[in-house]
Each structure stands twice: as structure tokens, then as C-alpha cells.
């Protein structure tokens, strides 16, 4: 994950770099076109000035011819050639490439050329001039260097400026985020956000205030419902169970009546367990448990083994402890006890008589494995009231409770089928 600032700065820098790369050829062609236009004007002026100067001279035609001959000899890149009256040409402007004359450097250079008809003493002459235009590349190079310098300056300034501005502009957002992280529904306290002059942050704070107030209200209602349901349902269930116990102790009951009463008692006991488990799931979902306790997990495992030893003996199940490392975790003690007991009861319930159960607590991973034949359906494994076997003695909520407890304490519970063993692992 990346901070928001880097996500906005990086595309901007890439965009600026692309624009800079595109600008280099644009600079070249624009400067070259401007430079050629300036050279064309320069050549035109030179041609006109040459004609003007020769016409201004008060000398005979023979002297003018000698001067033109001398001009052609000492002026590289220019020439003046007399035309016949029937050999006039239009002005021609073009670019040519050739070696630089009178130089040891054999580099090919570009020249801007002009061929123009001028009149000297009313006689037509073809004036040719060639001007080097290699200065264009040097000019573009200088412009490119200057552009690159300002690009680096902009990038550096933008980076420094963003770092400094982010500390002030994003301060209200960070304060809001920090308060949200520390918010706990159990305290049911309203969050007081700091005032800000940024419209977006103020709208965010207002929306969060409404959302938190609504959640607190819903939380209170759900909590009251679970508490009321716990008291209101448990009482009549307990009365019914006591009445059935008394009825079953009546000596006047026939065997058929006794069997009916016993079935009712089993169903009532199961309903009571389901009610307790549903209430527990509701409390977990409403975050009604404190998860800041320091728990000696290995001690709880030992305690659970002692409490469930009778169940192991009834089915003659062999319990094998592979490892039991001293482990300390943060969470809720009551929920952790329920998680461990449910894992053990689930293994005992689905282990055949004379079977084996293996437990391990090592490297922050608690595993419970029991012998089996077929891999369980992982899609239905942790769903409520899902039946994974023909055993109906459970409430169908044990694995769902394990999943919710692990989720609430930020643990990870997983299932695997290895060497004909069902393995449930909880990673802290």
C-alpha cells in the first residue's frame, strides 16, 4: 500500500516527464523553422545590400567587373554571375548539406541557400549565398539543458512543498483517522472531531458523526435486546425443564409417557443450548467483550483437558499431546475458554469409540486433530446450523462460534484433512 500523496505526485511527475520528452522535438523543429526564416531574411538583405553598394560606386563597368571577380574569389559561400537577357531565373530558397569549406573538419553541415537575380548598373546578375545553419542544434541543446534544469527544479520543489503541505493540510484527516482507530462501541462515547476550514474534511466529519451516532443507537438497541432475550427466554426454559424433571420422577408415569417426557427434556435442553449460543454470537457480533486481557493459553488448554476428561473416558478416546508450549496471547479469557472447549467437544463428538485426538500448541498455533474418514465440506464448515455428520447431539453452532471468536480476537482458524485426520488450527 502507498500513501495518497505518492499516488498523486507520481502520475504528475510522469506527465511532466512525458511533456518534456515531447517538447524536445517540438523545440527542435520550431527553432529550426524560426532560424531558417531569419537566415532567409538575412540572405535577402545581403543580396539587396550587395546590389545597392555596387550601384552606388562611381566607377566604370570594367572596374565593376574586376570587383565582382574579386568578390567571387574572396567571399566563400557567395557568388555573383552575370546573366544573359534571356536567362532570368526566379528567386530560389533551399537547404543543402556539404562539407565545411576551407576547414580540416570533414563534418557535413547544413546551409541555407538563396539564388536571387540582382541588377548592377542595369545588368542582371545571379547572386548566390550560402549561410551555415548548424547553430540550430546548439540552440536546441541549450534550450533542452535549461528545460531539464527547470524540470529538476520543479520536481525537487514539488517534493519538498508536498511534504511540508501534507503535514498541515492533511492534519485534520489524520486526527480524524486516529480517533476512529481508538473508537470502541463498548464505551459508547461520541467522538469530538477537531474543527477544520477544509470543506471536504468538514463534510467527512459531519458524516462520521451521524454514522457513529446511528451505530451507537443500534448497538444499544441490540445490546438491550440480547440482554432481555437472555433473561426472558432462559427463565421459562428453566421452569419447563424443572417441571419436566418433576414429571419424570413421578412413579405413576407409564413407560410410554416417560419416554415422551424424556424426549421433550432432551429437546428442551438442546433449545436452551441453542438459545445460549445464539445470544453468545449476538454479543460477539456487537463487540460486547473486552479483548485486552493477557491470557496464558497453555493453562486454559490444560484446564479444558481436565474438565473434559470424563467425555474422553466415556468413548475410550486416547488423547495425545504432541507439544504444549507456554503461550501468552491478548484477548478475552471467557471467549478463549469457549473456543478451546468447543474445539475439544467437536473433536470428541466426531471421534469414534477407541479413537485418537491429537493436540499441539507450538509457534503461536493451536491445533486439534481427530481421526476421520472423509474430508468435510469447507463451504459449510463454519456456517450456522450446517450438518456435517449424522450426529445430532450438537447445536450446530459450535464451529460458527469458534469462527466468530477467532475473528473478534483477530486470530485465524483453518481446517485441513491430513492423513485421515481432521485438523482444526488457530493461529494467533
Automatic annotation (TrEMBL):
The chain crosses the membrane at residues 12-30, 140-161. InterPro entries: HATPase_C_sf, HATPase_dom, His_kinase_dom, HisK_dim/P_dom, HisK_dim/P_sf, HssS/ArlS-like. Its main location: membrane. It comes from the Bacteria. It holds the Pfam family HisKA. It is a multi-pass membrane protein. Its EC number is 2.7.13.3. It catalyses: ATP + protein L-histidine = ADP + protein N-phospho-L-histidine. The keyword ATP-binding applies. This is histidine kinase.
Amino acid at each position: 500500500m502507498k500513501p495518497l500523496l505518492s499516488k498523486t505526485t507520481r502520475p504528475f511527475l510522469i506527465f511532466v516527464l512525458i511533456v518534456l520528452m515531447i517538447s524536445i522535438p517540438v523545440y527542435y523543429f520550431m527553432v529550426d523553422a524560426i532560424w531558417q526564416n531569419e537566415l532567409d531574411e538575412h540572405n535577402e538583405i545581403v543580396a539587396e545590400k550587395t546590389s545597392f553598394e555596387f550601384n552606388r560606386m562611381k566607377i566604370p563597368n570594367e572596374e565593376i567587373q574586376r570587383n565582382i571577380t574579386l568578390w567571387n574569389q574572396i567571399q566563400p559561400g557567395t557568388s555573383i554571375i552575370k546573366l544573359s537577357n534571356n536567362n532570368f531565373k526566379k528567386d530560389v530558397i533551399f537547404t543543402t548539406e556539404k562539407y565545411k569549406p576551407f576547414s580540416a573538419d570533414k563534418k557535413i553541415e547544413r546551409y541555407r541557400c538563396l539564388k536571387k537575380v540582382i541588377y548592377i548598373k542595369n545588368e542582371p546578375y545571379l547572386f548566390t549565398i550560402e549561410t551555415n545553419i548548424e547553430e540550430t542544434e546548439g540552440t536546441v541543446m541549450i534550450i533542452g539543458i535549461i528545460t531539464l534544469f527547470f524540470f529538476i527544479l520543479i520536481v525537487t520543489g514539488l517534493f519538498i512543498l508536498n511534504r511540508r503541505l501534507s503535514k498541515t493540510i492533511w492534519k485534520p484527516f489524520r486526527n480524524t483517522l486516529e480517533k476512529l482507530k481508538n473508537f470502541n462501541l463498548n464505551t459508547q462515547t461520541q467522538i469530538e472531531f477537531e474543527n477544520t476550514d477544509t470543506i471536504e474534511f468538514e463534510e467527512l466529519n459531519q458524516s462520521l458523526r451521524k454514522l457513529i451516532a446511528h451505530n451507537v443507537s443500534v448497538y444499544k438497541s441490540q445490546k438491550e435486546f440480547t440482554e432481555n432475550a437472555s433473561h426472558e427466554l432462559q427463565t421459562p426454559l428453566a421452569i419447563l425443564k424443572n417441571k419436566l424433571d418433576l414429571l419424570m420422577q413421578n412413579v405413576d408415569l407409564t413407560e410410554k409417557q416417560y419416554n415422551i417426557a424424556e424426549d421433550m427434556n432432551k429437546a428442551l435442553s438442546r433449545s436452551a443450548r441453542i438459545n445460549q449460543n445464539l445470544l453468545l454470537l449476538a454479543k460477539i457480533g456487537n463487540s460486547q467483550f473486552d479483548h485486552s486481557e493477557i491470557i496464558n493459553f497453555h493453562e486454559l488448554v490444560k484446564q479444558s483437558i481436565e474438565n473434559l476428561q470424563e467425555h474422553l473416558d466415556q468413548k475410550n478416546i486416547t488423547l495425545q499431546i504432541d507439544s504444549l508450549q507456554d503461550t501468552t496471547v491478548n484477548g478475552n479469557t471467557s471467549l478463549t475458554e469457549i473456543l478451546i472447549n468447543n474445539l475439544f467437544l467437536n473433536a470428541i463428538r466426531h471421534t469414534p469409540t477407541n479413537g485418537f485426538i491429537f493436540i499441539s500448541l507450538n509457534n503461536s498455533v493451536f491445533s486439534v486433530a481427530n481421526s476421520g474418514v472423509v474430508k468435510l465440506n469447507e463451504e459449510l464448515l463454519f456456517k450456522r446450523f450446517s450438518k456435517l455428520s449424522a450426529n445430532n447431539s450438537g447445536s450446530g453452532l459450535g464451529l460458527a462460534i469458534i469462527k466468530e471468536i477467532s475473528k473478534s480476537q483477530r486470530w485465524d482458524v483453518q481446517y485441513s484433512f491430513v492423513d485421515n485426520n481432521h485438523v482444526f488450527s488457530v493461529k494467533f
